[in-house]
Amino acid sequence: MTTRLTISHVGHRGDGVADGRFVPFTLPGEVVEVEGVEERVAPSRIVTASPDRVVPPCPHFGTCGGCALQHWARAPYLSWKRDLVVATLAQHGLHPEIAPPIDARGAGRRRVTFHARRGSGTRLDVGFAAARSHAIVAIEACPLLASSLDKALPAARLVARALEGVGKPIDLQVTATLQGLDMDMRGPGKLGEKDRLRLIEAANAVPLARLTNHGDLVMQREPPSIMIDGHRVPLPPAAFLQATEAGEEELVQLVLAGVGKAKSVADLFCGVGPFALRLARQAKVRAVDADAGAITALAQAVRMASGLKPIQAETRDLFRRPLMASDLKGLDAVVFDPPRAGAETQAAILAKADIGRIVAVSCNVASFARDACLLAAGGWKLGTVTPVDQFTWSAHVELVATFQR
């Protein structure tokens, strides 16, 4: 059955919405025809195209699940990202000033995860997952990646082929570092000696600085590191980094503006220190994270650095052992940048803490809204919220927000 629909808006996952149905790869105002009665169905024909429709730059768009919105012009796409933040906060009774979204794609992504799976017959597919599917789209290139990852896909193919005999699905996380590509494998399990030898041979054929398996070292030419504000930071295997260097810099500038002239700051969920190392230009910093490898890396960077205020790097699970009011006493500001789950327990304590200001960084608007409501209940006023878009063409949006009493 053919049905003609008019798309009213783009939903929070990037699909066009019409009469309660979700139509991927469509835009507001478009008239489309669809076949079938499913709740989510691809258009069989676009009858009237939006003037904001553009030609997608990637030949894999529509099959690869990594991007949802390559067909949308930049300005309305960024406005939609801002609208996602506005709508989610409003659902929680929050109506702060929302700044224009910041385009933080920059030179492209500096880290990527490829999937390697057995395809039909004897084919080994290496690429990204298809939309809402476990099938793998074997890509040839990705326009989202920085030039520093140009060799990442060939390297992933070679490493995956070296493990074909293992017979397991494998994920390969690749990060661009000063020394070359850093790759961590997930999925193959414990490796035998023959597997390790094949992997070392494959790694030597491509520009891998290091190859690890679930964090365990397989091969290393040189310890990988990155630069943060002029400081060399060793990189633990599979370490978390902001997706783009431009994204990190935009988030940092918003955080620095948020803490103002604070002289003592806690950096919670600090990772390898992108905020802490920059905050320490002006303030004494207590940097806390559950990742022992990240804290070790930060501490090593601090030992090699000069011209910084003291940084106390501490391994601590803030979900199980949040900083208490006594730990926060005397601080001028707190920065917290939790994972997608947010920081509910820590936020509840921050709500009652005697500190000057709070800066929140979030990769999940919904969990941020929950935490913001906890702070608001404790008398904190939510200031400007700034969306940051470093996951181009996806429905993912990050933000930085300030709180004051």
What's the gist of this structure?
The chain has helices spanning 74-91, 152-162, 193-204, 245-259, 276-279, 292-304, 325-328, 344-350, 365-377, and strands at residues 2-6, 9-10, 16-18, 21-23, 31-35, 43-48, 102-103, 111-118, 124-129, 136-137, 170-177, 180-186, 208-213, 216-220, 225-228, 231-234, 264-268, 284-289, 311-315, 333-336, 357-362, 381-389, 398-404. It is α/β, with parallel strands linked by helices.
The oligomerization state is: single chain
Principal-axis shape equals flat
Task: Summarize model confidence as the mean pLDDT.
Answer: 96
Beta-strand content bin: 25-35%
Please compute the radius of gyration using only Cα atoms: 23 Å
The strands making up the biggest β-sheet line up spatially as 7-22-23-21-20-17-18-19
Report helical residue fraction: 10-25%
> What is the strand tally?
23
Straight-line N-to-C gap: 58 Å
* SSE class: alpha/beta
Identify low-pLDDT runs: none
